[in-house]
Amino acid sequence: MAHLTENPADKERFICVYPVYINSKKTLAEGRRIPAEKAVENPSCAEIRDVLTAAGMNVYVENKMHPREWNRDVQFRGRVRVQLKQNDGNLCLEKFRSRRDVMFYVAEMIPKLKTRTQKSGGSDSSSQQGEGGKKSKKKKK
Q: What distance in Å separates the CA atoms of residue 14 and residue 3, rounded to the nearest whole number?
């Protein structure tokens, strides 16, 4: 189906970024589009939206799924639409010349989010404490 409009500022002309594109846990066959070394572990649509909004991009989230995503959980749902060009065809931001630039930027910035840094520190200590408690109970029996 051809595009209904040629105006690059229309929402249907925004580029799509699925979390699968930057997920280090996925293979190229499963939909990853950037090198695994630069990708992020299990990104969410909310994280992608937060990073791009902070960068000054015009974004919105849709409740869609990537065709190759077999997991139907809410965590893996979503698609972020990003405006690259304005009405006159000029780029919105010079640092984002293509969808690839957007994906690399998002993959670089997601690990720096507060939610990511707090989760990694808190989950390590809680998982160790839980395992330690289980071991001591087994010894007592």
A: 12
- Cβ neighbors of 91 (< 8 A, separation 6 or more) are 84, 85, 97
Distance of alpha carbon 139 from its chain centroid, rounded?
A: 43
Q: Using one digit for the tens of pLDDT, what is the confidence trace for 67-98?
A: 887 776 767 688 899 888 888 878 888 888 88
Q: Count CA within 13 A, CB hemisphere, residue 108.
A: 7
Q: Which contiguous run of DSSP H or E holds residue 17?
A: strand 15-17
| Cross-strand partners of 16 | 81
Nearest residue to 54 via CA among 91, 93, 89: 93
pTM of the entire structure?
A: 0.73
